[in-house]
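Minutes, project check-in
Item: structure for the 192-residue chain
Input as provided by the requester:
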Amino acid sequence: LTRALRAKSISAIPLKPISAGDRADAKLLSESAGGTISPAEINPVHFTAPLSPYAASIMEGRPFPWGVLREKLLQIEANYPGPFLVEGVGGWRVPLDPTLGVREWAQELALPIVVVARNTLGTLNHTLLTVDSIRQTRLPILGLILNEPIASPDLSSFTNPALLEELTRLPVLVLPHQATDLPTLPSWLIPA
């Protein structure tokens, strides 16, 4: 998405502010932005254990660093024009600490949401639950992106896009397995 926006001369800045496990995504995101933002800026909060941030913070014996997260995001806003593509961590309801999760953090950021899901059997339930929960927050949802996780998709991958479009009344973009470029950038993904 970052590459596609930058190809249209939109200076998109990818962010993965929270990660757990390896940090390879931050390097890839930096490369997608032409190296204009460092992996450390893209990913200021990192846990070593490949778990939800809350579980990893318990295992590593340290609380979730809300102050660091907020400070780093303010610095990025001051140093880069945006728009910002902020990747969540594990899903809409993943806990970040005992009381707050991705949902509450998204409400604090007050950015429009793009739901990204696997285009496989079971995604209808997961995606509909996610969309319902986001709508309860009143945050705007721009659309859905369905990733083909394997080269040989299952039968549901042919029916999921149309059903999700019908049931959510949101636009759906399907990305082929291991796509490095978007086929065509839909208008709903282009910042106004």
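Outcome recorded: The mean pLDDT is 94.
No further action items on this chain.
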